[in-house]
Design a protein that fits this description.
Length: about 270
């Protein structure tokens, strides 16, 4: 049977992710959605809560607990083109590990190289990825405004702190695009030498057995979680992992905390 164009495209994307460690999907959300997300984030960015250390960036705003503040982000967290990749590279019942906005101001310096799934640091390198990260551009990412830098193929390296800056590439992309990369790929936020800010949001996903970076069940109150799709509810932690019913609450499925009529047991909570 001939493969469809969509299947061939997905295969190419997966091949590149597994060899180079990253892909970029350009212009996959429209300007209207970008504008809506920016409007929902705007009140929280006006507080000018800058980073507390070199890693967060002293000239960078970070906003957390986003699904309690910006519901429009649901559209990118479960964007179909992202989900089809996650479903191939992570086991069933994967979780939303982190979800934050990063607004890089002029004068911000370059980050240190790091891996997003560094919680798996106890596992020797090279090791399989323990998560998948996405960075959505809400402003154009340019060479001088802090575009993310990637070290291609670094998910296969034996060292954790390589001095290979010359091998890095800057991910320039228009607003409405997304960078997807394996959690064990070395990357960093670039320096912002421009005169404007650079806004992004970065949903990150992890294995169902790995502790989330952000405690989503506490970050997103039950009344907020209840408004989202079953898939996002499962990503937040209103799900169980089989075998073993890992994630139960008081002996029952955690989704019963936000849906008293819920009777299903399937891991994603999508089917009853």
């Amino acid at each position: 049977m001939n493969q469809s164009l969509e299947e061939l495209q997905l295969k190419r994307q997966l091949d590149r992710l597994l060899t180079q460690g990253y892909i970029v999907l350009r212009n996959i959300i429209d300007k209207a959605l970008v504008s809506t997300i920016r409007k929902e984030l705007s009140p929280h960015l006006q507080q000018k809560m800058m980073g507390r250390n070199d890693f967060e960036g002293f000239s960078t705003e970070r906003v957390y607990a986003l699904l309690a503040k910006a519901p429009a982000l649901a559209a990118i967290i479960e964007h179909p083109q992202v989900i089809r990749i996650l479903d191939k590279l992570l086991p069933a019942n994967y979780l939303l590990s982190a979800n934050l906005a990063i607004n890089t101001h002029p004068g911000e310096t370059v980050q240190n190289w790091h891996r997003d799934d560094s919680a798996g640091g106890m596992i020797p390198l090279p090791r399989p990825h323990l998560g998948i990260s996405t960075i959505w551009a809400l402003d154009d990412f340019t060479a001088d405004n802090g575009a993310t830098e990637i070290l291609p193929g670094s998910h296969q390296w034996l060292d954790n702190h390589p001095k290979r800056d010359a091998d890095s590439i800057k991910i320039t992309m228009p607003a409405g695009s997304v960078l997807i990369f394996l959690g064990n790929v070395l990357h960093r936020g670039g320096a912002n030498t421009s005169t404007g800010t650079r806004l992004a949001v970065t949903p990150q996903y992890c294995m169902p057995w790995l502790r989330q970076i952000e405690n989503m069940v506490l970050a997103v109150p039950p009344e907020s979680a209840a408004q989202y799709s079953p898939r996002i509810q499962a990503m937040l932690g209103y799900s169980v992992t089989e075998p073993g019913f890992m994630g139960y609450v008081n002996g029952v499925h955690p989704k019963r905390l936000i849906d008293k009529n819920y009777q299903g047991r399937k891991a994603r909570g999508i089917d009853s």
